[in-house]
Each structure stands twice: as structure tokens, then as C-alpha cells.
Amino acid sequence: MIQLLFLVLFGEGMVAFLLMVKIGLLRELVMQGLDQVKVLWRTHLLEASLVGFSLFLGFLIDRMHHYLRKLVELRTTMGTSRKEVERLEKEKLHLRENEGKANENIKKLQKNFSNLADNLKKLKLESTERDKQVETAEAHVAALQKQAADLLLEYDRLLEDNQNLQTQALGYRS
């Protein structure tokens, strides 16, 4: 590697020496060579710049393609997400309507339940009243039956006394 450096330095020294020496033909030959090298250098520099610019544009196109593809994916995802959000909002609205109806039904059922509970209490009170009335009526019936049995016994006794008296009265008359 160092030999190559020495070779390049030696070549540059020779060119500088030939440019300093006033040998016309050799000097002009070196000047034309340097002019051709400058033209070639400019051509190569232009080609390298064009290649670099082409590589830069290629990289730019690749990145733009990547980002555009990502943008398309995001837009489709956003479209589906937007549809999903709309569907969920409709479902939420529907559920709120159903919740309102359910709340109304619950209130109606609670009113019905409270009415039925009140009716049940009234019916229980009426039932206990009727049970008491039935018990008093049964007690009254039992008392009446006992009184009827006592009266029947009294009637039988009186009937027997009557027959005895009639037989005695017939016995006195005869």
C-alpha cells in the first residue's frame, strides 16, 4: 500500500517537474494530458454525481413507495375502523333505547308488584276477617245447636209431662 503511495507521489512530482521545465513539446504534451485528465475527471465526476443522484432518487422512490403503501393500509384500516365505530354507535343507541324500554317495563312491573302486594295485604286482611267471622259463626252455630238440643230435651220433657198430665186428667175424669 505504501509502495502505491510512493508511486503516486513520484508520478505527481514528475508531472510537476515537466510543467516547470520549459521544454516546449514535452510541456505541451503534459498540458494536453492534464487537460484530458481534467476532462475525464469532470466526466467521471459528472457520472458519479449522476449515479449518486440516481441512487438518491431511487432511495427516495423506494421510501415514497413504502410510505404510500403504509398510507393505503392505514386508510383501509381507518375505513374499517370508522365502519366499526359507526356500527358500535348504532348498537350503543339501540342498547340505550332498549335500556329505556326495559326501565319503563321495570317501573311498570314494580308498580304492578306494589299493587299486587297491596291487594295481597287487603286479601289477607279480608281473609283473617272472614276467618274470624267464620269462627264466630261456627261458635254461634254451636251455641244454637246446643240451645236447640236443650230446647228439644225441654220439649221432650214437656211433652212427657203433658202426656202424664193428660193421663192423670183422664184418670180423674174417669
UniProtKB/TrEMBL annotation:
It is a multi-pass membrane protein. Belongs to the BCAP29/BCAP31 family. Residues 71-168 form a coiled coil. Its main location: endoplasmic reticulum. GO terms for cellular component: endoplasmic reticulum membrane. It comes from the Eukaryota. InterPro entries: BAP29/BAP31. One of its GO terms (biological process) is endoplasmic reticulum to Golgi vesicle-mediated transport. The keyword Membrane applies. The chain crosses the membrane at residues 5-25, 45-61. The keyword Transport applies. May play a role in anterograde transport of membrane proteins from the endoplasmic reticulum to the Golgi. This is Endoplasmic reticulum transmembrane protein. Keywords: Apoptosis, Coiled coil, Endoplasmic reticulum, ER-Golgi transport, Membrane, Protein transport, Transmembrane, Transmembrane helix, Transport. It is found in: Endoplasmic reticulum membrane.
